[in-house]
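Q: Could you fold this chain for me?
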Amino acid sequence: MSGKEIMFTPVKLGAIELSNRLVMAPLTRMRAIDRDVPNPLAKTYYSQRAGAGLIISEATQISSLGKGYPATPGIYSAEQTAAWKEIVDAVHAKGGKMVAQLWHVGRISHSSLHPEQGLPEAPSAIAPMGQTYGADWKLHDYETPKAMSW
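A: Sure. Below is the predicted structure, expressed as structure tokens.
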């Protein structure tokens, strides 16, 4: 078999049976709507790509403190989870498989992305060098995060 033929043969990846060996890599799209809910257009975006053997979702924060950039989706509220369910159901309806790329960016976050919680949390209170995007879509210096504790 040629490499091209192999790419289009089924394969089992852990517990997931894939129709082919094509994997759609994640892409941080920064198109979420209010309250970090995936944009309704994401349903079309992902379902159009259901022919890939596996789709890996865009980075999806597991908590508001895990948010790294403006307009990125979460999966920690009922509203966010419902939106992701619609997306995944649309992918499944076309025979596709999808997994979520979960993230918590730690010290790379900025307090403007989660003003109610304040400073980002990280393993230690050490600020990274450089800048990141805040809620206003402008670059801001990284902040010194709060050190996490038990």
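A (continued): The first helix runs from residue 3 to 7.
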